[in-house]
Design goal:
6-stranded mixed sheet, 14 helices, about 40% helix
């Protein structure tokens, strides 16, 4: 199961620098709009201190963290939904991601061109939001033109689309609409841009007042916010541990970013652990033991017998499976057990 985060924003806000930092990958960075035309794709290893502790305990030969796919999408500009700056092509790339990370420039730098001529992250956020709304409106208009009312389902679909259309014209994104479960299912295939979860990432270089303004704005709007000095963080990754220590530098704890990503994507982490490999797995929060088994291998899901499971918190307290068994902390669960965040799982399955 793949999970994708799309980095979006105006040109020259630091998306490619952030992409390099998160994926430890060097790509073209240029001080002009549309330096990134084809999306760059990389893998971000999700920070999780629990994995290292489990691997050390089991003396595992291999340690495998969970990963998220990161897509660096070219800078959008005002009028993108109408085709400005190759906007339609770039907007189509956003449809393919699960989470939008909008990078907002909070740093002043006369050497780096700002397409809007000044630093104002709230204005920049609103520009992008309006482009996403306009793209969704265009999609609805095209569908309504072609939609033929042949049955009750088609009529319901038309009614829902018209209702969404009305709200979008009021600049209300799809994610804020009070839709029923059946309505959500009906529009699922449209993959509306304004229905995707959004994380605002404030790219700063010091104690800029714009970061504080954006933090308050995000809080007021109920948006997820994460500040990061992207350029400085990237430069520090090139230094040795000794050099960092000499400078008094401590790496940013990206586990906070990981938790925000998990929350926005409705994900949990479970572990499989042993001498050969200790691995963390990402799964939707509602997934059962049998469904989680399928993430490892379809044969395990198909021939599932039961799950032996204990939680990381209990393990951390005891760090000994024998003691955990004595305390009754290792449980046997059936196929419909909802795997919990931090569960350490041993799947028992038969031969196919």
């Amino acid at each position: 199961m793949s999970h994708k985060i799309g980095l979006i924003g105006l040109p020259n806000v630091g998306k490619s620098t952030l992409f390099n930092f998160l994926t430890k990958k060097d790509i073209l960075i240029a001080n002009y709009p549309f330096a990134t035309i084809t999306p760059n794709v990389g893998i971000m290893l999700l920070a999780d201190s629990r994995l290292e502790k489990l691997s050390k305990y089991w003396q595992s030969k291999k340690t495998t963290p969970s990963v998220i796919e990161i897509v660096d999408i070219a800078g959008l500009v005002k009028g993108a939904a109408q085709g400005s700056g190759l906007g339609n092509e770039f907007l189509s790339h956003i449809r393919e991601v699960d989470l939008i990370c909008q990078v907002l420039r909070c740093f002043p730098d006369q050497d780096i061109v700002h397409v809007e001529k000044s630093v104002n992250p709230i204005r920049d956020w609103e520009i992008i939001q309006l482009e996403l709304i306009e793209a969704d409106l265009q999609q609805i208009e095209r569908k309504l033109t072609k939609l033929k009312i042949r049955d009750e389902k088609a009529q319901r679909e038309k009614n829902i689309l018209q209702s969404i259309q009305e709200k979008l014209t009021q600049e209300i994104p799809v994610s804020q609409l009070d839709l029923s479960t059946s309505e959500k299912e009906l529009i699922k295939g449209y993959n509306f841009l304004t229905n995707k979860p959004i994380l605002l990432l404030a790219n700063y270089s010091g104690e800029e007042k714009e970061v504080h303004k954006l933090r308050e704005y995000a809080k007021k709007k109920g948006l997820f916010f994460f500040p990061l000095a992207v350029k400085l963080e990237g430069e520090m990754t090139e230094l040795s541990a000794a050099e960092k220590k000499e400078l008094g530098w401590q790496d940013t704890d990206l586990s906070l970013l990981t938790e925000k990503i998990k929350e926005l994507l409705n994900l949990k982490v479970f572990f499989t652990a042993g001498a050969e490999e200790t691995k963390s797995w990402l799964a939707k929060k509602e997934m059962t033991a049998r469904e989680c088994a399928g993430l490892i291998h379809t044969d395990i899901q198909k021939n599932f017998i039961r799950l032996e499971v204990y939680n990381y918190i209990d393990w951390l307290t005891n760090s000994n499976e024998i003691q955990l068994r004595k305390l009754g902390k290792i449980r046997r669960e059936g196929s419909q057990y909802i795997v919990k965040e931090g569960d350490i799982c041993h799947f028992l399955f038969g031969k196919g």
